Amino acid sequence: MKINFILLKCLVYALYINFLNSQLTIQNNSKNIDLQKPYNNTKGQNFNLLHSIEYGKENVENSRLKRAVAPNPNLKWPRTIYYTVRPPLPAKKISIALNGIARQTCIKFVKVPRLNGPGLVFYRGDGCWSLLGKVSSSSPQPISMLPKCLFNGVIQHETLHALGLDHEMSRRDRGHYITINFQNAAPGFKHFVGFDPNLKTYNLKYDYGSVMHYNRFSSSVNGRITIMTRNMHYLKTIGQVHAASFKDIKLVNLHYCSNVCQRKLRCFNNGYTNPNNCSLCKCPTFFAGKLCNKLKRSQRGCPKQNLISTVNRKNLSIQGIKSCIVRIIAPKRKRVKLHINNSQFTNFKVCEPFKGLEVKFLLDKSVTGARFCGSDRNKLIVSPGNSIILHYRGFKPTDKISITYKTV
C-alpha cells in the first residue's frame, strides 16, 4: 500500500510537470509563462473574504492534486525571489503585501516584467490559490488571485504557501487546540484541513492568530461553526486576514534565515535574533528592547504597566481613544484569575489586531493572544502561569473595558 501511494504521488507529480510545461511558451531560449491559459488543474487554496473555502467537485479533486504534489524537500527558494504581476491585478497591493514579509525576513522579492526561470507569477485566475512550497527548479510558479481576495493577509497567506508554510490546522497537535465539525462543512473540507504528521513546526507553539488559520465558519453549509477552538476565548481570533503573525514570520526566518547571523542573541519572551539586524532581537507583539525584555510603551492616560496581583480582588478600567499595554503579575507558582466584567468595542466577525482587547494569558507570550471585539460580559480567564498581558486599543470615546483580577 505504501509503495502504491508513493507511485501515485510520483505519477501525479509527473502529470503536474507535463501540465505546467504545456502552459509555457519558449521565446528566445527563455521560459515565459503563458497566462492566457488558466491553471485549471493546479488549484490548491480557495478563499473568499472571510477565509471560507469555495467548494465544488473540481475544487475538491484539485485539492487532492495539491496535496499529492507536495514539494521536493531538496527544493528551496533562494533568498531573492523574482515575481511578476499580470494585469489586471493591482501590482501595488501585491508589492505591499510582499514587502510586509520582506521587511521582517531575509527574503527579498524583486518585481520583474517577465520571468526567465523560477519565480512567482501572480495572475487573475479562477480562484485564490497557491501551490505548497517550491515545486520546480526551472519553471515559474503560479499564484492565482481574484479581486475579492486582494487583502493584505490573503496575499501573504498564498505567498507563504509558496514558501512552504501549510495551514496551521495541518499541525499534528491540532487536536489539542481545535475541533473540526465536518458535519457542518462542505464535503471536500477535509482535504483542506487534513493534518500532516511530517509537518515541520520548529517547536513553535500553535498560533490561533496565524494568517494560515481558517476562521470558525470556513466552508460552513448550514451557518454553524466548522472549526471550534478548544479554548473558547480564541473563537473570534482564528481567521486573520490582516497580516502574517509574529509566529508566521518566525517560521519563515527559521526555515530560510537561520544562518544569516553568526552570533545568536539571548532574547527574552521567545524573541529571536533579527536576520535584518543581527545586533537586535526581533520581538513578539507587546514587547520591545534590544533583547525583548521590556513592554512596549503605553500612551498617555493609561494605567500603570505593571500591576501586582494579590489574593484580594482589584479593579481595572480603561475607556476612550488610546493604546494601553498592561501586565498583571502574581507571585511565582501562583496564577492570575481575570474577569472581564464588560467590554465594548466595534464588532467584527473575526476580531482584528490592534482593535479592541487582546489578552495574552498562555505561558508562551509570543503567540497571539485571545482577541475580544464587540460587546463581551462575564468572561473568565485563568492563566496557567503567573502573568497576563493585555493590550487595550480604543478607537472611539465609547470603547471601554472593566476588569477585575486576583491571585489564585
Tally of structural domains:
4
Question: Secondary-structure element order, as H and E?
Answer: HEEHEHEEEEHEHEHEEEEEEEEEEEEE
The structure class reads alpha+beta
Shape: globular
CATH structural fold name of the largest domain: Collagenase (Catalytic Domain)
Low-pLDDT sequence parts: 1-71
CATH class of the largest domain: Alpha Beta
**Main sheet, how many strands, which sense, barrel?**
5 strands, mixed
Helix percent band: 10-25%
Question: In angstroms, what separates the terminal alpha carbons?
Answer: 54 Å
User: Rg, please?
Assistant: 23 Å
Amount of beta strand:
25-35%
Spatial strand arrangement across the major sheet: 4-3-5-7-6
- What is the CATH architecture descriptor of the largest domain? 3-Layer(aba) Sandwich
Count of helical stretches? 6
Number of strands: 22
Subcellular location: Secreted
Binding site for Zn(2+): 157, 161, 167
InterPro entries: Astacin-like_dom, EGF, MetalloPept_cat_dom_sf, Metallopeptidase_nem, Peptidase_M12A, Peptidase_Metallo, Sperma_CUB_dom_sf
Domain Peptidase M12A: 67-258
